[in-house]
From TrEMBL:
Belongs to the peptidase S41A family. GO terms for biological process: proteolysis; signal transduction. It comes from Marinomonas aquiplantarum. This is Carboxyl-terminal processing protease. InterPro entries: ClpP/crotonase-like_dom_sf, PDZ, PDZ_sf, Peptidase_S41A, Tail-specific_protease, Tail_Prtase_C, TSP_N. Residues 1-17 form the signal peptide. It holds the Pfam family Peptidase_S41.
Length: 682
């Protein structure tokens, strides 16, 4: 559910403990937040894009999100509990409006009771349970949350817990831990989780309740209590040292959402979106289990002084997802220059000639506002840097240009407009519609064009927001071929509003292309698609709950330079023919097929050790065979094990994009000759 994807989810999904715990203390609403509650209703109804009425329709969604935030894995509540709580389904709207949020605390306190009862019933049995596990039995654990139901009896819930614990113990066993170490690790893990739940306070509960309501409106509107607000502001300013990764809670786990371009994690390339962090260590210190920890506490552990090392134990998103590994990342501050535009040249051999295609990689839309305010003339910005690089590439006699916006999550809207203006004369690049229905076009006012030749824009599922504005504008103008994958689909605008306590990030407007089509939900569709390892079912606006819908407004006036769709019947078959013979694309497509099979296969996890070992060996062998087939086709030496596999230095996507651009140039030249011949005949 959506609430699990918000910046902070302050509750764990399940816990064991190995030390006595005191009886839980019921939490009560903090009356100093009564006014904040009323302010939230006023702002949500007054300035949210949809101008919603916080009513029973919102309340019923919020009720489901709230329950899901507390018990996302259905590990504590029984079906009878959910049935008993149904009477509160239509009270969330009134509670928020009236500044009386007792209903949220009544539900939460029942969760606490179930949590404590569960811990007390299992804490003394944990060592014996682990030691009694029989890993030769053929049984399995459901790992698909969409198919998980509330247990109808205590015995059914007990068995579910037994299987979950057995799975965690088996993962540790397969990673080489002996029985005593497994017990020790699990005891420490569940003790930490219990501690985190015990530290949840009344303000935390208010934030979860408020975000259950905001989640019912859209996935990007959220409330930050004072501590969360401070963390949010730190993340936005990038003022602390870290690894350059955006994290979120997903059930009990800290999950990587995306990597900050130019940051340590992105540069090192061992951490990837959707990886789960299960333990964190400092330098040579012990690994601390973070499963079930509050996200802000995990972030605090990952942050640290520059040039120090943080160790992360992760379960990679690609693979069997049941085997962990430890990676080391040296903390750095993500600097503006690390995210700056960069250039390279791809050389393509055709007909005995070598053609040069310039590539400009732009990881974000940036501008050094501090330098601008200080009056510095030579300040850095994505547009100025890109313009300079284009001029340098033109001196090297490039035949075409690629603007690489893969993994570009957005940034300055002003920069996006200005950068699009490097390739078109003055004109609109995006339209913004506010909650009143007023549409404001924005664009480039500079009539000059820095580059007028053939070009393509490379995008993928992680290209979002400002990237989608640029890609959409250049596609609508017929100025560039869009190559790659469907973009993220974030076409909404958020603003921060100060409250009596904390902040509200609220959706206030939507982006529309000059053609009138929204970038929301659907994103920008490529003219020619490339295979991608990013799963669109789990990444993108459409993967979130309650995204605002795609729609369309009136188009604005703009010229069309090339009728790109007319070229696709020629370009696409040639592209597909090359991919069918390219060892890199063949290997990539096999990897994608394997990943899809695994996603379906591991919705049910075997608890038989031999089966799991066989699955792991089978996956490793397939990875090894795939890589050696690729290397052989390229005339390279094979590798002996999966540990020897290294990332290819050649950018397969940029190479193929260059080939497509040369096809476009040749096709366009042929069309011009035919037109000239026809004119001469007439």
């Amino acid at each position: 559910m959506n609430l699990k994807r918000l910046l902070l989810c302050l509750l764990t999904g399940y816990s064991f403990a190995v030390t006595p715990v005191s009886a839980y203390q019921e939490l009560q609403p903090p009356h100093e937040y009564d006014q904040v509650s009323k302010e939230l209703v006023e702002m949500l109804e007054g300035i949210h894009y949809n101008r919603p009425q916080i009513d029973d329709t919102i309340s019923t969604k919020a009720f489901d999100y709230y329950i899901d935030a507390m018990d996302p894995t259905k590990s504590f509540f029984l079906q009878s509990d959910i049935d008993a709580l149904e009477k509160y389904r239509y009270e969330f709207d009134d509670a928020l409006r009236n500044g009386d949020t007792q209903v949220a605390y009544t539900i939460y306190n029942l969760y606490l009771k179930r949590f404590e009862d569960r811990v007390k019933s299992l804490q003394a049995d944990l060592p014996d349970m682990v030691k009694s596990f029989d890993y030769t039995i053929d049984e399995s654990l459901n790992a698909d949350p969409d198919n998980q139901h509330w247990a109808t009896s205590q015995a059914e819930l007990d068995d579910y817990w037994r299987k979950r614990l057995k799975n965690r113990a088996l993962i540790l066993k397969m990673n080489g831990e002996d029985e005593d170490k497994i017990v020790s690790v699990l005891e420490r893990r569940y003790k930490n989780q219990l501690k985190q739940v015990d530290q949840t306070n009344a303000v935390d509960v208010f934030q979860i309740f408020a975000n259950a309501v905001t989640a019912a409106l859209d996935p990007h509107t959220s409330y930050f209590a004072p501590r969360a607000s401070e963390t949010f502001n730190i993340n936005m300013s990038l003022s602390l040292e870290g690894i350059g990764a955006v994290l979120q809670m997903d059930d009990d786990y800290t999950k990587v959402v995306r990597l900050v371009p130019g940051g340590p994690a992105a540069t090192q390339s061992e951490l990837a979106p959707n990886d789960r962090i299960i333990a964190v260590g400092q330098e040579d210190g012990p690994m601390i289990d973070v499963v079930g920890m509050r996200l802000d506490d995990v972030v605090d552990m990952i942050r640290g002084e520059r040039d120090t090392t943080v160790r992360l134990e992760i379960t990679p998103s690609k693979g069997d997802t049941q085997t962990s590994k430890v990676i080391d990342i040296v903390r750095k501050k993500v600097k503006l220059e690390d995210q700056s535009a960069k250039k390279e040249i791809v050389e393509v051999e055709r007909g005995g000639e070598t053609y040069k295609v310039g590539v400009i990689s732009l990881p974000t839309f940036y501008s050094d506002f501090a330098a601008i305010q200080a009056g510095e003339k030579d300040y850095k910005s994505s547009t100025r840097d890109t313009k300079k690089l284009i001029e340098e590439l033109q001196k090297e006699d490039i035949s075409a240009l690629i603007l690489d916006l893969r993994n570009n999550g957005g940034g300055s809207l002003q920069e996006a407009n200005a950068l699009a203006g490097l390739f078109i004369p003055s004109g609109p690049t995006v339209q913004i519609r506010d909650q009143s229905g007023r549409v404001t076009p924005l664009g480039d006012s500079d009539p000059s064009i820095t580059y007028s030749g053939p070009m393509a824009v490379l995008v993928n599922r992680m290209s979002a927001s400002a990237s989608e504005i640029v890609a959409g504008a250049l596609q609508d103008y017929g100025r560039a071929l869009i190559l790659g994958d469907q973009t993220f689909g974030k076409g909404t605008v958020q603003v921060l509003q100060e409250l009596d306590k904390g902040q509200l990030k609220i959706t206030q407007a939507k982006f529309y292309r000059v053609s009138g089509e929204s970038t929301q939900h659907k994103g920008v569709m490529p003219d020619i698609a490339f295979p991608s390892l990013i799963d669109k079912e789990s990444v993108g606006e459409s993967a979130l709950d309650n995204p605002l819908p795609w729609d369309k407004i009136h188009e604005t006036r703009y010229p069309v330079y090339w009728n790109m769709p007319a070229y696709l019947p020629i370009l696409t078959p040639r592209h597909e023919a090359r991919m069918a013979k390219d060892p890199n694309f063949i290997a990539l497509n096999d990897q994608i097929d394997h990943f899809k099979q695994q996603v379906e296969k591991y919705k049910t996890i075997s608890l038989n050790e031999n089966t799991r070992i066989h699955q792991r060996e089978e996956n490793e062998q397939r990875d090894l065979d795939r890589e050696n087939t690729r290397l052989k086709a390229l005339g390279l030496e094979p590798v002996a094990s999966v540990d020897d596999i290294e990332a290819s230095e050649e950018d397969t996507y940029a190479k193929e994009a260059s080939e497509i651009l040369l096809d476009f140039i040749a096709t366009n030249q042929m069309a011009q000759k035919q037109a000239e011949k026809q004119t001469a005949q007439n």
